Amino acid sequence: MRISLYPLLLLVLLLELRRSAAGDYENGGLSRAGFPSGFVFGTAASAYQVEGMARKDGRGPSIWDVFVHIPGEIAKNATADVTVDEYHRYKEDVDIMKKMNFDAYRFSISWSRIFPNGAGKVNWKGVAYYNRLIDYMLKKGITPYANLYHYDLPEALEKQYNGLLSKNVVKAFADYADFCFKTFGDRVKNWMTFNEPRVVAALGYDDGQFAPGRCTNCSAGNSATEPYIVAHNLILSHAAAVKRYRDKYQATQKGRIGILLDFVWYEPLTNSEADQAAAQRSRDFHLGWFLHPIIYGEYPKSMQQIVKERLPRFTSKEIKMVKGSVDFVGINQYTSYYIYDPHRPMPQKATSYAMDWNAGFAYERNGVPIGPRANSVWLYIVPWGMYKAVTYVKSHYGNPTVILSENGMDDPGNVTLSEGLHDTTRLKYYQSYIMELKKAIDDGANVIGYFAWSLLDNFEWKSGYTSRFGLVYVDFKTLVRHPKMSAYWFRDVLKRKN
């Protein structure tokens, strides 16, 4: 009789992971007690990446459902039709969060699961799913943080009026948000309108890498104008939804609402004035594109000077609605790059949002890399960038209330279970970045929460299943969940003293 040693070896590995995670935590010196009272630690995900059931229970297609079925767009032509099936396994996932001592879950609501046509008829099966998820989270003591939009515009609106390119989307989004506030707001007290609207505008309409895949050199689009039109409509949609919440629900529901903005830290390659100016332009075109109107009521001056008539203008009524339209700002921070002035003249005719930056990217200085690279080509591990990004928001935008709403790194999708569980690089990534975040808080940054991306290995947009960001290893064939060493590290860091 042959006895497989694999289960025994796996058990030994899991025990070693727990022991090692605790040891690394002690060396890092991090603990929940070191953060301000009430500081929230959570994990994050998005509906399209984890739910599955893309074509079932009444959900309408989103622009990503169309995009992923274009051959060659997604690594290995993967889809999110099933992904990690959180639609059915949400209890298991919430239980894992609880076991790892997390306080909150930042999830997103699929617009087309609620309104299959983007507006009009409600899909009550979709509503029932989110009710089940929210109720179970509350039962387990996990606070829901609901994000209304994570890249997944209903395809019906794209067909009807080109989606985000039309101002019609402003009312449609506000109506969808209003429904969610009315339906879930008795239990959800933390709302976010959009996740990474810059990514939506730039990757969807400047280089065509994301849905709906529009650009000058794509089958349709204009990279010089459409990103700015889309961003403008996203800002107005955000502000309109916030106005609905404040006018109709906030006083009675006693919640708060914000927006989630990605922020790569851009460090000047040299101390030259030209490189410093290029780095500042990059920050303006990246973070400032959205945060400047929300805080100050206008686009950054550098954008106004460079983009000129291609940059839409806010009316005085719109400025009043947009300015101050956040109770908090979510910052998604992963990586940092060096920026230099390429010393090239701007083209006579504008070509794209990316060219408008007039900035060069560098990933090393004097032969020394800015940091080791994770699996994703864009993700360099640069802990000090976290401190600089957070303190920049503090100093340039009046020290708003901030939630560090995403932070994490990925391994290759093909790592084995044993390799994936022993994720020491991820553990050290979290340890070093959170220490830099704490340093920023100690220096006065008004940060009230931190969310790790992500709970699970899942569908990772263009990368499909070739990238694993999770604290939990998912066997993509069986969908069995296995918490990694980094998850146990969080469990130990987040222990509460009795």
Question: Keywords, please?
Answer:
498 residues, 14% strand, 18 helices, eight-stranded parallel β-barrel, three-stranded mixed β-sheet
How would you portray this structure in words?
This protein is of the alpha/beta class and 498 residues long. It is 43% helix and 14% strand. An eight-stranded parallel beta barrel has the order 1-2-3-4-5-7-12-14, surrounded by four helices.
Fold topology:
Elements: H1 6-28, E1 40-44, H2 47-50, H3 63-67, H4 86-99, E2 104-108, H5 111-114, H6 124-139, E3 143-147, H7 155-161, H8 168-184, E4 190-195, H9 197-205, H10 226-253, E5 256-262, E6 265-268, H11 273-296, H12 301-307, H13 316-322, E7 328-332, E8 336-340, H14 353-356, E9 360-362, E10 364-365, E11 368-369, H15 383-396, E12 402-406, E13 411-412, H16 417-421, H17 424-442, E14 447-453, E15 467-468, E16 472-474, E17 481-483, H18 485-493
Oligomer: single chain
Could you describe the largest sheet, including whether it forms a barrel? 8 strands, parallel, barrel
Can you tell me the overall shape? Answer: globular
Number of strands: 17
Distance between the termini: 49 Å
CA gyration radius, whole angstroms: 22 Å
Low-pLDDT residue spans: 1-9, 21-27
Task: State which percent range the strand residues make up.
Answer: 5-15%
Output the number of helix runs. Answer: 18
Provide mean pLDDT, rounded: 95
- Helical fraction equals 40-55%
Order of strands in the sheet with most strands: 1-2-3-4-5-7-12-14
Would you summarize the structure shown here?
By secondary structure, this protein is of the alpha/beta class. The chain is built from 18 helices and 17 strands.
